[in-house]
Amino acid sequence: MKKLQDIVLFGYGSFGRQLYKSLRSRGHRVKIVVGYDDYVEIESDAEVEINRINIKRNDDILALNINAAESIFYCAMNKTANNLFLVLTLKSLYPEANVIANSNSNETTRKLKYAGATSVIDLYEATSRRIVNVLTKPAVSMALDEIVYKQNDLKMLELELQENTFLEGKYVSEIQFRQMGIILIAIIDKELGYELVFTDHRINHKLDAGDILVIVAKEKDINKFQEMLVSKSSV
User: Are residues 140 and 180 in the same domain?
Assistant: First the structure.
């Protein structure tokens, strides 16, 4: 008899509710996790247990007591930045975990994959059957992770900016990250209470000492980038 999957579903909006119903109807165990401030609509005839946590606190996630080796994480938060933050956090806490996330654009898909998502579901293309297949066939997800992430020798790093580096006071658009082999995934801004700023063409964040850059690059390019920061080089 085929073993049923344990699913940890982050987010319970309209999409999350439908996915929950579909998975439960197939007998899978689903743990629902939402943020303290997330609006959750629960149908009156549904007996649904909602776990509310601060998704930006590692301790809150660890307190869920999830067996990551036997679970699949699905990030279906309403905000793209929260999905990205969760992927980064979950892969940090559970490096071998199977983490799947929703996407609403090619740009988002690219960043989620670089952040470590095992699989990314494009909501504009996906059907409920396809999503359930991805969730319940982890071998496919593992193969994708091997091809996209590991075989390309990519590393992910959270790098806190110190004072007086060549980046301080500059806007993201002024810095040629790609010429240095660096992909900037996100910025964690201390001045905004450690809010994660999801970087795309619409956001031009000013960098300050104390900001944490979430970057993806090959190890040799990361080493060169760190040397530039220490030597206060400019580009």
Answer: no
Question: Residues 84, 107: contact at Cβ < 8 Å?
Answer: no
Residue with the two structure tokens 């036997």: 70
User: Which residue, 150, 165, 185, sits at the end of a domain?
Assistant: 150
pLDDT tens, 59-99?
999 999 999 988 999 998 888 888 999 999 999 999 989 99
Residues 171 and 91 in one domain: no
Q: Order across the sheet with 6-10: list the strands.
A: 50-53, 29-35, 6-10, 71-75, 98-103, 119-122
Q: Please give the average pLDDT of every successive group of 10 residues along the chain, which has 235 residues.
A: 74 82 82 84 64 91 92 89 90 92 83 88 56 52 46 68 87 85 77 57 74 81 88 55
Q: Which of 150, 170, 190 is the last residue of a domain?
A: 150
